[in-house]
Predict the 3D structure of the following.
Amino acid sequence: MKIKIKADINKKGPKISKQIYGHFSEHLGRCIYEGLYVGDNKNIPNKNGMREDVIDALKEIKVPLLRWPGGCFADTYHWRDGIGKNRKRIVNACWGDVVEDNSFGTHEYFELCSQLGCETYINGNMGTGSLQEMCEWIEYMTFDGESPLALERAENGRKEPFVIDYFGVGNETWGYGGNMTPQYYGDLYRHYQCFLKNYNTEHPYKKVCVGPSDFDYRWTEEILEKCYAYPHPEGRHGFMDLLSIHYYVIPGDWEHKGSATDFTEEEYYTTIRKAYKMDEILTRNSEILDKYDKNNDIMFAVDEWGCWLDVEEGTNPGFLYQQNTMRDALVASVTFDIFNSHSDRVKIACIAQMVNVLQAVCITDKEKMILTPTYHVFNMYKNHQEALPLITECENIPILSVDSEEIKAVSSSISESEDGSINISLTNISLSDDYEVEISINGMNKSDISASILSAEMDDYNTFDNPDNVCIKDYSGYTLINGTITVKLPKTSIVNIMVR
Ligand code: AHR
């Protein structure tokens, strides 16, 4: 039976924030060093230390936002170690106990974002740092005037203040970032945010409060309870601009997460089932937030998400290096469809992580680089950035039973860009069945149509010897007749259609 998707050009949801296609880069394994930053390595073409091949690839997918320096690493990061001529060498005790020479620090991060043309998201150290240290870092980065810290920044080569778009007040304070109770962190958050000055009043950065992980709705409730109790004397409630959410898809459990490339059909379906849980997480957290934030002032920052799998054999377990298959690509497209459908509350999302770590979009080996299947999904979905999502009604979506739960075999997003073009993304997660999908958009009067496809076996992936094993191809498996688009949607595929 044909799957039917109906929409109306005049029925749209809130704009899809471009920042939900954001990334996360931590001082972890080969993400920053080797992956993004190669310093003065003459063998790898670079501009001011940033490797050109990776930057070019990332610009192509329109990276809108980059979170740094962690993660757990942020919880022990002292910003002074990473500025000036004599950088302090430390041990990266979070990740692999390797020497961190701090050659990539604040100035290099802003250089990277400037080369990418993306917004900045700095995460402060609430684990081993002090509030004073955090305030000084913000002054160092953003004060425009004669303060000693602004002068020091100028001596280090940057007279103009940097622009911070988002600032994270702590990371995972419920666990690795301090084992705090929500009551304790809620108080600390209120306290800290009070002193984190916004020197740039024309472009104030937005403050991100640490929210829940996975299904810990109690954390959300308690944090909001704390932050909404005793409002600010000027009547300001909540004290935050965004609340973070972390959710990793782990096919097995923390001890045995599962191989990145060698998995069964059962494990595949379990992974996809777990990816769909993002919808429940956003729905439940939104319900809690709605009780407090009646004016929709606070948004979610899903600033860590992605597949977390076993590290590749022979690699440092603390480097979190994993391969990336078509399964990862399908997790990404299903997740983007969920984010797009929650555009009322989701402002930011950062895949973990950008290069060489977890569900990376690029993998490097010395002077070589490959794009992962997940990269191609970012490329296929980039037109949804800042577009208006069309509200859809779906009929006959096949339902699969996985681990005694029901999941949809087909997921989708339809949006309208500012220039009026329509972006349609369709994902078929079935390992056995092709489907036919009929899309009718009432009021759409365009006919210039093109399509592309990402299609492979569930465990196919790219290697340095075969870098295009999984890649985007032009697709002709559709018709457009009297305003109705009919698409053949092969098993384990993602189809992207653009109508102009
Ligand atoms: O992304 C890897 C780690 O996962 C981050 O450092 C931490 O915040 C989370 O637990």
Q: What stands out?
A: The mean pLDDT is 97.
